[in-house]
Amino acid sequence: MTLLLAIALFFSSTIFSSAALGKGVYQTVPEFLTEVFAPEEPQQEYLWLTPELKTSAGGIMKHRVRGLRVRYWRLGVKTA
User: Fold this and answer.
1) Is 36 in contact with 80 (CB distance < 8 Å)?
2) Inter-residue contact 47 to 70 (CB < 8 Å)
3) What span, in angstroms and rounded, lies between the C-alpha atoms of 4 and 27?
4) How many C-beta atoms surround the C-beta of residue 11 within 10 A?
């Protein structure tokens, strides 16, 4: 009985601690742009997704690509 309780406690603590560690991982857009392009500010651009581009991107990403455009940032030859 004690072993069963210990196993249950171990798995529940693993599940809940993983969820707690995942909070606060994502950056805001300004933080990301500062990290990648600092000290200059990049231009925001769009890639319009034609049917051919959607098919090609879907093959690369291994899932169907949705939407009409993809937003990205460019500064010289560097993109993100």
Assistant:
1) yes
2) yes
3) 40
4) 10
Q: What confidence tens digit (pLDDT) does each residue in 13-33 have?
A: 656 655 566 677 799 999 999
The answer to whether the beta carbons of residues 73 and 43 sit under 8 Å apart is yes
Tokens at residue 75, please?
């500064």
pTM exceeding 0.70: no
Q: Residue 67's closest CA among 54, 56, 80?
A: 54
Cα distance between residue 59 and residue 55, in whole Å = 6
- 51: tokens are 């049917």
Look up residue 24 and give its two tokens. Answer: 């606060």
Question: Cα(31)–Cα(13) distance, rounded to whole angstroms?
Answer: 32
